[in-house]
Design a protein that fits this description.
Layout (H helix, E strand, L loop, with lengths): L5 E4 L7 H5 L2 E4 L7 H10 L4 E2 L10 H9 L3 E2 L4 H8 L1 H10 L7 E2 L5 H4 L3 E5 L9 E3 L5 H16 L4 E5 L4 E10 L5 E13 L2 E7 L6 H17 L4 E10 L5 E7 L6 H8 L3 H9 L16 E8 L1 E2 L5 E2 L2 E2 L2 E3 L7 E4 L6 E2 L6 E9 L2 H14 L1 E3 L5 H8 L2 H4 L10
Parallel strand pairs: 1-2, 3-4
Antiparallel strand pairs: 5-8, 6-7, 6-8, 9-10, 9-12, 10-11, 11-14, 12-13, 14-21, 15-16, 17-20, 18-22, 19-21
Length: 407
């Protein structure tokens, strides 16, 4: 797009690839979660716009307000929408009022029996799996509540927890939405992100094997109803839970940011989501309507992480003696590391996202597995072999990808 880019980094990332990729890089003395430090870096470098990435600041309405108050364009949804959707309970109520189906839930743990076990505890103020606990019986509830509140307070500074009916055999399916400030909003189909461990996604794909044309239309319409009701602009994701047995779908939450798995949508639609975010933030019209969105082939993304699946996916550390993706097969590598990078416990264990796009699902899976195995990798334990084995697993290839797949 011909735009000059300025990145911020902390000392631990001084040699990270993104630092040299940017036109200019500014050191943060504290952390990526220090909004004032990020804003100061933006101000002294006279930037015109700020993109918050995937991190927690991307869904922080107070930070977005400060950015706009400083005269800097915020690349993302309005602060009003971020605030409204950041409270998961308020978001559920808005979804219900917009006619979107929701699962039974309550802020009062005393209503656990009425909702029925098993149930799931969720943090009202956040996502990303933080503060989540599945509770199978009443005797486990108090201890699980205490643990969930501690985790939520640590992650979000807010220990409010709500309880919700838990669907054991389910799919996690989300609808990508895109809107402009003039009321035009479209959906770009679904992504299935059911293969997770501790509510952290490992494999994402589009289209979903459980979603047919009728369900895609119904889920897309529900997502758009909610998007219009809250006057959504920029990129966002409306997340649903699909009951494997009944194929009924229920609203979970709205992520008011770009998702880590956005490349699979880009692959099947040919629409560059970051480019559209920037265009919308500049005040441009979306420029296309729902009928202009078409889907081609199948895309799968895996998250290559520094973790050891053989010991409960515990994070691994060390120095990458080698990290050289193969030239063939041709897949999309989005990496935060390179040969020589240090992997520490300071950050999320995600090393790279790898995305394959092919005419069929089986081809995409085989291509992605082959690319992973061709990665020249050394020095740090990763989930590479686990991912490749999953992509070749008969249950995965048959489309049996419920949220309990790994277990």
């Amino acid at each position: 797009m011909g735009l000059r880019t300025i990145a911020v980094y902390v000392d631990a990332d001084a040699n990270a690839p993104f630092v040299t990729d940017a036109d200019v890089a500014i050191r943060l003395p504290t952390s990526y979660l220090d909004g004032d430090a990020v804003l100061n870096a933006a101000t002294i470098s006279s930037v015109e716009a700020l993109h918050p990435g995937y991190g927690f600041l991307s869904e922080n309405a107070e930070f977005a307000s400060k950015v706009e108050a400083a005269g800097i364009t915020w690349i993302g949804p309005s602060t009003r929408v971020i605030a409204a959707m950041g409270d998961k309970l308020a978001a559920k109520q808005l979804a219900e009022s917009a006619g979107v189906p929701v699962l039974p839930s309550s802020e009062d743990p005393k209503n656990a029996k009425a909702i029925g076990f098993p149930l799931i505890l969720k943090a009202a103020a956040g996502g990303g799996g933080k503060g989540m606990r599945v509770v199978s019986s009443a005797k486990e509830l108090d201890e699980a509540l205490a643990a969930a509140r501690r985790e939520a307070r640590s992650a979000f500074g807010d220990d409010r927890i709500f309880i919700e009916r838990y669907v054991a055999r389910s799919r996690h399916v989300e609808i990508q939405i895109l809107g402009d400030r003039y009321g035009q909003v479209v959906h770009l189909g679904e992504r299935e992100c059911s293969i997770q461990h501790r509510h952290q996604k490992l494999i994402e794909e589009s289209p979903s094997t459980i979603v047919d044309d009728a369900m895609r239309s119904a889920m897309g319409s529900a997502a758009l109803e909610l998007a219009r009701a809250i006057r959504y602009e920029s990129a966002g994701t409306v997340e649903f839970l699909v009951d494997e047995e009944t194929r009924a779908f229920y609203f979970l939450e709205v992520n008011t940011r770009l998702q880590v798995e956005h490349p699979v949508t880009e692959a099947v639609t040919g629409i560059d989501l970051v480019r559209e975010q920037i265009r919308v933030a500049q005040g441009e019209h979306l420029g296309f309507e729902q009928d202009d969105v078409h889907f081609s082939g199948h895309a799968i993304e895996v998250r290559l992480c520094a973790e050891d699946p053989s010991i409960g996916f515990l994070p691994a550390t060390g120095t990458l003696a080698a990290f050289e993706p193969p030239l063939e097969p041709a897949v999309r590598w989005e990496s935060g590391v390179t040969s020589g990078s240090s992997v520490t416990v300071a950050f999320d264990p995600l090393l790279a996202k790898v995305i394959a796009h092919a005419p069929t699902r089986s081809e995409a899976a085989a291509t992605l597995a082959l690319a992973l195995e061709g990665l020249h990798l050394g020095g740090v334990v990763t989930n590479r072999d686990f991912l490749a084995a999953t992509l070749r697993n008969e249950h995965f290839l048959s489309g049996d990808t419920t949220t309990d797949f790994i277990e």
